[in-house]
Structures are given as C-alpha cells and as structure tokens.
Amino acid sequence: MLRCLGCAKTEVSFNSCRDRHCPKCQASAAHRWLEARQADLLPVEYFHVVFTLPAPISAIAWYNKRVIYGLLFDIAADTLRTIAEDPRHLGAQIGATLVLHTWGSALTHHPHVHGIVPGGGLSPDGERWIACRPGFFLPVRVLSRLFRRRFLEALKVAHRHGQLQFFGEYTGLADSTTFARWLAPLRSCEWVVYAKRPFAGPKAVLEYLSRYTHRVAISNQRLIAFDERGVTFRWKDYRAKGRTRYKTMTLEAGEFMRRFLLHVLPGGFHRIRHYGLLANPVRRANLAKVRDLLHVTPELSPSPHDTVIETRPVFICRHCGAPMIVIEILARSAPIRAPPMCRGQT
After folding, report:
1. What sequence ranges are listed for the domain Transposase IS801/IS1294 (predicted)?
2. Start-end of H helices in 161-216
3. Quick check: is 292 in a domain?
4. d(Cα 160, Cα 175) in Å, to the nearest integer?
5. What is the rounded distance in angstroms from the CA atom of residue 73 to the CA atom of residue 275?
6. Hey, which of 185-189, 240-244, 259-263 has the most confident mean pLDDT?
7. Highest mean pLDDT of the ranges 174-178, 217-221, 311-315
8. 257 domain residue, yes or no
C-alpha cells in the first residue's frame, strides 16, 4: 500500500509484470525513455504529423498486424523524407521519430502513427542546416497523396508474395483479381494525414512524448467500475464539442477484453522507431554535426568528483505528482495445494 505525501491518497501498488501493454509498468518505462531522449533534442521548432490508415485497410490489419503496421511505419517515414528532400519543398535530409497507436478512445481499431519531426534538415552535401518556414513544415495534401500511392503499391506486393491472410467476410480477397478490385476505391478516397501546430519549444516536445510514447489502449484512470453489467470506462467522443465530449461506456466483459486484445502487438514488434537523421546507427553523429552547424555549445559533462547523485522517488502520485511512500506490504498468500494423494495412486 502507498500513501501520497501531498494529497494523502492511498492506493495499492501491485508487483510489476513488465508487460508493454500494462499501463502501470509502461508509466515507469516512459520516464526512463524520456530521460534518454532529452539529449537528442535540438534548439529548433518541432512538428507533429499523423498518418492514419483508412477503415477498409484497418479491417484487414487485425490479422496482418506485423505486415501492415510495418508498412505504416516505413512508408510514413519514407513519405516524409521524400517530400522533404524535394527542392520544391525543403530540399533537406530530415529525421523523424514515429510512434504507433492502434486505438480510438472507445478501444476501437484505429491504426495510425504519430511523427515528431525537427523543423529542418541537413543540406544534400551535409554542410549546412536548412530550416523550414516558421510555423510550416511540409504540405499535408502532398504527403497524403504520396503516402496513399506508396502504401497501396506496397500492399499489392505483399499480397503477391503471399504475406497477407484473410478470414471471415474477407476470405475472397485471397484471390488477386478480387483484391485488386477491392483496392480500386482506396486510390481515390482521402487518406488522413495532418500536421498539428509546432510544439512550443523542446520542453513541450518532452511533455507530449511523456503522454504518447508508452501509452496503452486504456489507462487505469479511465476505468470506472466492473460489475454484473460489465466494464464501465470513460471515453472521449471527438465528434462532440465542449464538455459533452467526455462520456462513459459499459461493455460486457468479453467484449471489453476483445477490444483491448485488438491492440496487443506481435512479439518483438517495435512501436517506437527512428528514421533518417535520427536512425539509431547514425543519430549520435548526426546530432553532433547539426549542433555544430547551429553553433550550439554542447553541455559539459560534470567530473566524477562534482557529480551529485539525485535520488528520485520510486513512486509518484498520479493525482498531484508528489512522492508516495510505502505504508504497508501485503504478504504473499500461501499457494493452493492439491489434496494429498491416497496410497496406491500415481
């Protein structure tokens, strides 16, 4: 049991399961990841872009997660880099961090990637930093068209190589002719790609990342009740306005678990990926070069004799942010044992 030193609220802190779909375990993982990312921030504008898959493709992604989510990552990154390298737009080599989300607020299936992108890049010869126009990164309509074309081309290739599976009402899509006919309307519909306003400085980037990088389909705070009716939770209706956006929903327990399990990723699948200048093998060298071009003085590392070890609280109150202390440890109960076996039994 824990008690907050600020607001005096108490709560049970269960042992960590370390599963990446657990909201409790991912909260601490997010803090560790953010501390590692602080050193990567540049003194430039940062932009937030989102690439979303249309509903028909989302439907077949349920049982083709590894293939379709992988394409979503790679083609979104490739689209950003291709348009950015075009001299008619930015004419620079850029970097991006992409984060996969697969859910809507009501636990519906809604796969999309959030991109965090520095507002500029290196010139083709790598000798100067090219900044984008203040408050504007890349044209979203151009991004949308290229993303749509390249994703559909890659989907056809995956189908031709037998990498896609189809079940239920989509079984017929295993036939190449039927699949091509199914894809045709997707070439003319709008694919949602949008860019939000630039972040208000590096600190805002970190605050955003702390909310999004390790988020799972539903957090403990949104759960209201579990009773004979099912599971009741809060959700946000983006089509409504004002306070009416925030609503409650009750789902039968089986349906709640079905919706949650839609968002469990395949084993070993990375949901945070870095591309371009920020790709893991070259990130350190590229960031050092960019800082040099921007005339940013790197922070001096303190000597071992001057290092002050900062002790961070292990538990943080989710209500007020104050440290929490352990007030009681619940002992492990005795395991249930089978009845003793009679003589002669094996």
Report:
1. 95-280
2. 176-183, 202-212
3. yes
4. 10
5. 10
6. 185-189
7. 174-178
8. no
194 in a structural domain: yes
Identity at 246, one-letter amino acid code: Y
pLDDT tens per residue across span 327-339: 888 776 666 666 6
Distance CA 332, CA 117 (A): 47
Q: Which amino acid is at 133?
A: R
CB-based contacts of 196: which residues, under 8 Å, 6+ apart? Answer: 47, 48, 49, 50
Residue 209 near residue 40 (C-beta atoms within 8 A): no
Confidence of residue 253 (pLDDT cuts 50, 70, 90): very high
How far apart CA 252 and CA 232 sit, in angstroms, is 9
Phi-psi region of 318 (alpha: psi -120 to 50; beta: other; left: phi over 0): alpha
Going from the C-alpha of 182 to that of each of 173, 186, 271, 317, the distances in angstroms are 8, 8, 28, 50
Q: Compute the Cα dihedral for 22, 329, 5, 311 and give only its sign.
A: negative
CA 235, CA 118: separation in Å to the nearest integer? 31
Residue 240 lies in a domain: no
Number of domains in the chain: 1
Domain of 127 in residue numbering reads as: 21-217+262-299
At how many degrees (to 10) do helices 140-160 and 176-183 cross? Answer: 170
What CA–CA distance (Å, rounded) separates 31 from 181?
A: 47
